[in-house]
Write a structure and sequence with these properties.
This protein is of the alpha/beta class. The chain is 46% helix and 16% strand. It folds into 2 domains: 190 residues, Rossmann fold (3-Layer(aba) Sandwich); 128 residues, Phosphofructokinase domain (Rossmann fold, 3-Layer(aba) Sandwich), CATH 3.40.50. The chain has 11 helices and 11 strands. It has a 7-stranded mixed β-sheet, sandwiched between helices. The chain has a 4-stranded parallel β-sheet with strand order 7-8-6-9, with helices on both faces. Helix 5 packs across helix 6 and helix 6 packs parallel to helix 11. 47% of the residues are buried. The structure holds 6-O-phosphono-beta-D-fructofuranose. The site of 6-O-phosphono-beta-D-fructofuranose has 10 residues, from loops.
Length: 354
């Protein structure tokens, strides 16, 4: 079995609260196992350019509570080219890096699998506020981001109530409605629109008009950014026209990606960081660390990427060729469970917000 003397750690894609806690988990777990760690700056960009520095125990002190990522992050188009991938491998040779823990979303995992294929073992940790990695129940940063959203909505509701207005709020999540749906439930929003479900605008106008007649003053409508950047502001205008109620639009955008990670994300990040190191040095690679029903586990990166495509109805010809019938069946069951969870929550949201 390969002996690991030195591993790298990087954060890539959109940053997320808890990435620092994950870096700390990786560094401390590796050092406790006698393995050195090098921090790779700016994701795959730093790996390609050789922007790398050693990380000792004290280099990751006092970061568990900090938002952002001390290693910085980047989206790196060069990593999509063969030349970029070869440069990344060359950097690892030069620095004596035997394997890498990559923290990010699906783009990060695609990079990790490309490097593994070229002989450099990689393990992925899901770090994104979107919670759009279907193989794990929770991604690092998701819980904190949702708590930030409801804190902002609570503030918005105060002024919304004072002025008897409607507020349309757009939240991040890429093409996943997880943040929007959960924060709608948690903030008692009047309605939520996410890419996973059709949205009936006429029913919303009617609901607002009827509720206003019964004395309701504030209306909060949450929209997932996955519906397109024009949708939420245009909906706000349509609500005003169709109900006669003054309607304001707010886009929370990147603000919910910042801030200190909460307890849940710190624990998730720390346990995932340590698990990633244990997997890597025990010879497992091309895997993504997952949390399933509260247990930290792992699954093959290709499985995770194809599961995502299956869940989003984006499977391409040949995508499932590499999997056994049992694996495909398991993927279908996982997608069905995730959909049913979202279905139930969506129905509940409609049922309770009268
Ligand atoms: O993936 C995290 C995320 O914040 C998404 O919710 C959003 O669509 C995207 O990143 C924004 O990316 P950028 O930071 O490049 O604007």
């Amino acid at each position: 079995m390969k002996e690991f003397k030195r591993i790298g750690v990087l954060t890539s894609g959109g940053d997320a609260p808890g990435m620092n806690a994950a870096i700390r988990g990786v560094v401390r777990a590796a050092i406790s196992s006698g393995v050195e760690v090098f921090g790779i700056m700016r994701g795959y960009s730093g790996l390609i350019s050789g922007d790398i520095k050693p990380l000792a125990i004290r280099d990751v002190s006092n970061i568990i509570n900090k938002g952002g990522t001390m290693l910085y992050s980047d989206r790196c188009p060069e990593m999509l080219t063969e030349e970029g991938k070869q440069k990344a491998i060359e950097t690892c040779r030069k620095f004596g890096i035997d394997g890498i823990v990559t923290i990010g979303g699906d783009g990060t995992f695609r990079g990790a699998t490309e490097l593994t294929l070229r002989g450099l073992p990689c393990v992925g940790i899901p770090g994104t506020i979107d919670n759009d990695v279907s193989s794990t129940d929770n991604t690092i940063g998701y819980d904190t981001a949702m708590n930030t959203v409801i804190e902002l909505i609570d503030k918005l509701r105060d002024t919304c109530e004072s002025h008897a207005r409607c507020n349309v709020v757009e939240v991040m999540g890429r093409d996943a409605g997880d943040i929007a749906l959960h924060t709608a439930i948690a903030s008692g929003a009047t309605a939520v629109a996410i890419p996973e479900f059709d949205f009936n605008e006429d029913a919303l106008f009617e609901k607002i008009i009827n509720s206003r007649k019964l004395g309701k003053r504030n209306f909060i409508i949450i929209i997932s950014e996955g519906l397109g950047s024009d949708y939420a502001p245009a909906l706000a205008a349509r609500i005003q026209t169709n109900t006669g109620i003054e309607t304001k639009f707010a886009r929370f955008a990147h603000i919910v990606r910042g801030g200190n990670p909460n307890l849940r994300d710190r624990v998730l990040a720390t346990t995932m960081g340590a698990h990633a190191v244990d997997c890597l040095i025990s010879g497992k690679s091309n895997i993504v660390i997952c949390e399933k029903a509260g247990i930290i586990t792992e699954c093959d990166i290709n499985y995770a990427l194809k599961l995502d495509r299956m869940y989003k109805n984006k499977l391409q010809m040949g995508d499932l060729d590499e999997f056994t019938p049992e694996e495909i069946e398991r993927m279908r069951a996982e997608c069905a469970a995730r959909r049913s969870y979202m279905d139930n929550l969506y129905e509940l949201q409609i049922r309770l917000n009268l």
